[in-house]
Write a structure and sequence with these properties.
This protein has no helices and 11 strands. The chain has 117 residues and is an all-beta fold. The strands form 2 sheets. Strands 2, 4, 5, 6, 9, 10 and 11 form a 7-stranded mixed β-sheet that branches. The chain has a 4-stranded antiparallel β-sheet with strand order 1-3-8-7, with no helix packed on it.
């Protein structure tokens, strides 16, 4: 199974970025996909998850600024009103194949987002 993120980059505070994660080699549709982010020296933080039926939850730290969605097994993250504290490596995550739960054990390689003030 593979998860490949794209769309990271550098942006000034107040700007926007879109991230995309493409999952491949999953034998069945993925029940639940998520976005995590990690700042060096800190724990990886889940910021959004989207179930196959479209039900979405977003963490308080990004609520109102970030929107997660998916189309099939492609996951999206629209990030608006970015602040320097959003600087991190962003990861796409999914469960093991056939697992109908939001237990994330598979991660992509990550994409860097840098927000300058």
């Amino acid at each position: 199974v593979r998860l490949v993120e794209s769309g990271g980059g550098s942006v000034q505070a107040g700007g926007s970025l879109d991230l995309t994660c493409v999952a491949s080699e999953y034998p069945v549709s993925i029940y639940c996909m998520a976005w995590f982010r990690q700042i060096p020296g800190k724990e990886r933080e889940e910021i959004a998850r989207v179930r196959l039926n479209g039900y979405t939850t977003v963490s308080d730290s990004v609520k109102g600024r970030f929107t997660a969605s998916r189309g099939g097994d492609t996951l999206f993250l629209r990030m608006n009103t970015l602040i320097p504290e959003d600087t991190a490596t962003y990861y796409c995550a999914a469960p093991e194949p056939y697992r109908a739960e939001c237990a994330f054990t598979r991660f992509g390689q990550g994409t860097q987002v840098t927000v300058s003030s």
